[in-house]
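User: Show me an example of a complex going from sequences to structure tokens.

Assistant: Sure. Here are the input components:
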Amino acid sequence: MTHIDVQKIRQDFPILGEKIRGKDLVYLDNAATCQKPQAVIDSIVHLYSHDYANVHRGVHTLSVRSTDKFEGARTKVKNFINAASEKEIIFVRGATEAINLVAQSYGKANIKAGDEIVITAMEHHSNIVPWQMLCEQTGAVLKVAPINLHGELIYDEFEKLLSDKTKLVSVVHMSNALGTINPVEKIIAAAHAKNIPVLLDGAQAIPHMTVDVQKLDCDFYVFSGHKLYGPAGIGVLYGKQALLEAMPPYQGGGDMIRKVTFEETEYNALPYKFEAGTPSIADVVGLGAAIDYLSAIGMDNIAAHEAELLAYATEKARKIKGLRIIGEAEHKGAILSFVLDKIHPHDIGTMLDSLGIAVRAGHHCAMPVMDFFKVPATARASFALYNTKNEIDVLMKGIESLIEVFG
Amino acid sequence: MFDELRDLYQEVIFDHNRNPRNFRVMENADRQVEGFNPLCGDRLTLFLKMDGDVIVDASFQGSGCAISTASVSLMTEIIKGKTEAEAEELFKQFHEMTTGKDEQINLEAVGKLAVLAGVREYPARVKCATLAWHTLDAALKNEQKSISTE
């Protein structure tokens, strides 16, 4: 059952009409970044053509228009993830910067030598390295909850890691390398029972499902705009207001202050306290346009469409001899990571590219996951709302042909 | 189906990928250096046996894509019997062939390595082909450590 009119949606994405090496583009690298609908592109062009000036600064008309659009986008983000207030929406460069902000601001203020931070074995490097840096600075210890061969968190082992020493849990909502969707409600409940705050890395999850931060009751939620059909270079840190209020600023500069003298500085209120410097105004507006676009289609409809694509692709992939799927969690988003017998993922990537098919080949910034599955890299097809079953057929036919060529 | 890839994936490359030459650990190696391409996870260990400045034996271990496996396999064949200076000159020629702007390939200088000339059209794959040679370069300079293409 199709929940959305894919052919109509495809018309909204100009890049999908591109020819790659003479073939129709089959774009299956959505977990790396999504393509942009015309509405997002237009919103940026329109801002620069008609409304652009710096925000929160001038009394002149353009500054007011620009500020209205910028703050309007913040409200859209707030509504999209159902935050309680715009004060809880901090614009940053991406999920990576958001995690670094929490590590350096919340972390440095609240985590000390001997304390523990719990992550999982399926994290992206961006949810590993900022904590390693914090641990190096503070003497805290990073604890890693293990995964099983399906690519699922071993929940009992995770829970055993929670103790009086645990000061933060930071886990991925949906894995970019495996597609696994973590049982985040359970994780949050268990952590909160011990008064431990939880950060969810939502970079992968956010384009695939409805996210309600109040229902989840997570303390921080981070995501990037470019994986949500919006511009690159913009992302969001959601944090509960009380936590953000208590946190020291991350960077100093303009916009984050209320009053500056050479003796002392009074910081601005939320969310501006964490937004030093002129922000990426057009990208914020573009993100707002992406959210409008997705909301009109409906995240639940998108999730249903992608679930159908994943089931179809998985069934087809299982029939290919010599193909091994990496990541077969029961709860999984639209990502198909795989390896082929005796054919390196980079060869798969180049060969599929010659057919117009874009997949990712590599370690997906999750080297520990590759080590766990004892593969140097995987090939990964990741699906978005504009992908079709026909494209999956093209992919599978391509895989079968390249297996033949390698012999 | 993959007609336009014929320049990149020549039959010789498939052959060396299926049956890499000199794929063994060398117990009494004089030089041993590891090469690593963090982008794709290609990893190889190169072993050299020297007699003065002549490479008398070369072998390797590791795993990588077809291009990198074929490249190191071909390299271990071609450098045997070469002096260090001759091997460095080959590296220069190979580098020129895979990254250079010059349309003409100096076939006389590169010999059967010419099968790898196709990578110049695929910038993302150049490092796959050159990893072996960067590792050799480190080995010849007697750098007993890992080298990385990044």
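The lines above are the inputs; the final block is the predicted structure for all two components together. Chain A has a mean pLDDT of 96.
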